[in-house]
Records
---
Amino acid sequence: MVNFITNFNLFEVTVCCNVTHQLNADEQIDVIGGSSSIVLLGSNHGRIIHLKKDNDSYLVLGSFQLPNVKLLFSELVLDAVSSRSSVLCIAVNSNPIVDDPFCLLIAIATASKQLHICERRNGKIESLQKLITDSNISALSFARSTVCYASSGAYYIYNVATKSVISLFPFNPLLIQPQICSVGMEFLVSGMDGLLISVTEQGVSTRPPMLFSSLSIKAIVYSSSYVYLKSGEEISIIKRDQASTIFRFSFEESRLSQTLQVANAKGLCSLDGTIFVCSNSVLYQIQMITIEKQVDALFEQRKYDTAIHLYEEKLHQNYNSGCFANLIELKKKVAFKYIEEHKFENLTEILISAEVNPEEVVSQLALQTGNDLWERTAQLSDSQQFLTCYLQKIRDLPFIIPFHTSIDTLLLKLLTIRGTPEDVFSFENFRPHYPECIEFLQSFGYHNCAACLWLSAGENCKAWDIWKRLSYGELKDAAFNFENLVTVLPTVTERKLLIDIMTWLIPLAPEQFFKAIVDASMVDHETIKGIFNGDCKLLRVYLESIPTTKEVAKELCNIYIDSIVAGDLSYRHRFRRLLLEISTSDRALLYDRIPSECGVERLLCDISQTAADILCKVISTYHDYDAAELICSHYSSIQPDICLQLLKFLEESPVDYIESSMQSLLNCMGNAVDLEKIISALPESAALNQVWWFLFVILLFTTIF
């Protein structure tokens, strides 16, 4: 059940019963017999003391005298003992090969140099075989169909089935007392010079002998993977090799697990697997220390892994809910010890396997680090790094569900200290305690991240309030990018909030945010106009960013005219373009409102003039070639020849204007004007490098089509 552990006691000697008051002055216990529940103690006066198990101790039920009987090994063979004289040894078959479970096979050695194989069935004993030996038998063991015995200074194997005797090896009876023990399918016997030798039922020793320190082995008992050896007042215990179903005796495969001291030890025996030993007046039990005591001792010795393995191995052999609970508690203790010792290598696995409450882990870490887990540092400490990795690893595990909010809150704090709080947005199902996290983030200056966290929590008003303060410079955060608000604005679904945002956001960067506002279909045109509250500049920018409807064009024209009247002529080009796009009737209505110094604009609104007349006057009267080009560009699709008229005037225009205007006009005409007319209209100063590409395209188009 347990592995060998150096310098660790696996067994203990406990007192079962003290029978001093039941013994006479010169009487003492010599042997032990019976069963694990009913123990019979044989004294040197031939008296038997009857004990019965009561919980963890034994009570004396009585005693009786058996004249002329000094030794009794088992109450089951009492009939055999009483029916035969001069019995030397008795052995009950420990592993009989019989079909009847109520049949008992017994080997009895008598003082007449005989070995009797008897069968006890239905309360009667019958002698099945008799073997004559060279001398009296001094030690005996019976298992399966084989009897191993010592006689005439040698060990022998007697096969009951074949009735054959195999001689094993000699020993000096003056130096050693022969001992035989059945171990599985082999016999363990004591040899010369402290040797323990294993032999099979065929009389073969298949492995090297084991050297025992004592030269005087008084008893050998086997039970539950351990061999118990009595030598003087010492009880030595040897561990059976777990890799095999039979016991192995070699220096590599067997090991001395422990030596126990019992004063005046005698009568070592195994009754139903329970090991007993006695002194002159006390019955002791040798038992394995409870696994709980073993674990406690290992824990004190800081052998944490071995202690855990002890419980795990026991559970593997026989699951027990109590043992499992002990294992979990042990892992928890070990984990906290590792935290105390700052050993984080395997800590996460232990904490997860024991499903330790993560809040307790944080408390222990805080206790060991002096509560500085949440202080700002240049880099994370080992404790903080461990806690970060640990929390990330467990946050999705089933047993963490009750602690999910606290774990995510702690994670955000740790990542904030590390300088990467934005990492939390990559977590699935991130659910921290938002107010606590926001406060912590802002205490470290991560205002933009705090706003994003509010937004993820559905608290849009709080998020935009932080962004407003960042936009106006009330808060500072290098991670804040004002332009990113363009992508966030369309996510606002509350009309009132959107209007509030637009009120302060648009004046800061109108061009950037008008498109996003237009896309917000929940805000109508009149509402947006109302937001500007008479700010013509913002209204103009807004109207210029939306599709030009008749109403929009009318409003824009009014704004442009008012600006021109106020002396701002920067919008004249836009105004002219807009005039060409609206209907002639609408243009006519604007004529009287346009100042007289804006002659080109008034010409565009004069519906009595043709396009050619307007072009001629724009060039000849106002010398405004930009306006002339705009007129040609507008009318080229319906009156392509108008461009030819402008080409003729280019000769009179400034030299630096000729090339750009010429190319623009040629592009406006495309293939709508006859090529010969174009060439004839070109100014004499026009160079080939100014028009060759246009001519090449026209010729190519004409050739293809």
Note: Residues 1-6, 242-255, 669-673 have pLDDT under 50 and may be disordered.
---
Amino acid sequence: MSCSDSDRGRVDRAVTEGLESGEWRALRGHLSACAACASEYEDASLAVSQLEGHAFEPTDSAREALLYDLLSALEGKAAHASLLHGTDVTAPTSLWRSAALVASLGVVLVGVGAVLVGPGLGRSDDPVSESGLTARGATEASAGFSVFCLRPEDGSATVIDAAESGGGRAAACRQHDRLQFTYSVDARLTHIGSLALVALGPDGERAWYWPRPDETLPVSSGARQVALPGSFELLDRHQPGRWTILGIFAPASLSRAEVEAHLSGPELSDDHPESWLTTRAVVIVSDDVVGGHE
């Protein structure tokens, strides 16, 4: 399939400005059939992600565009994969493009994806090689996840709140809301191949999202805010209070037993493999939607 100037323009605007929901659907349909535009979109998205991910003070417009980009990815995922079993995800433009909401979620968006470092290096300024080691002078290699709180109502679902792993802001949700996740992995972290997600509750409870008993969760380096399959209802076992969602990026597929062996309360024990990269996000579960910070 050949690409028209309008197709290329839509790709550019999707990466730099964000698109309305109808335009996103049209673009995703085109990208699925056009390898050239799909490649261009992936390359541009990665470049923008790297720039935004390492910006210490992104502008309000950059934060706004990034949040809408994440939300649109969710919306597209729901439309094409029946994310909520027949319901639609609502992305109200007036809500998500308001300056007030951008400001309230600004902490979530600072340093998107820039929440983890290469194995054994701490937070250094060294460039990452194929082995995961780095040389002096470049930004950190990173991986992370976002969690969105969706509220199903009358056959649709609205995004209520969101949190970024490694950020300072907790997402506020109610029991029976649903959680949806996206992930990002720096292209330099070529050794990363899987992700585990487990929520640790206020009284020591654990709620597993990935891996599932019969299914692992492969991930790819270079991914930028890729929506994970499925969504998860905050059932009654999610007692009100603070839930810490632990994300573990690893080279090989992880089983629940492997992760459980290294869990000590709400944290991983010190003897976990050095190749694991870990990060956390917080969800506050309550009967009322009350925004909060960690």
Note: The longest strand covers residues 143-153.
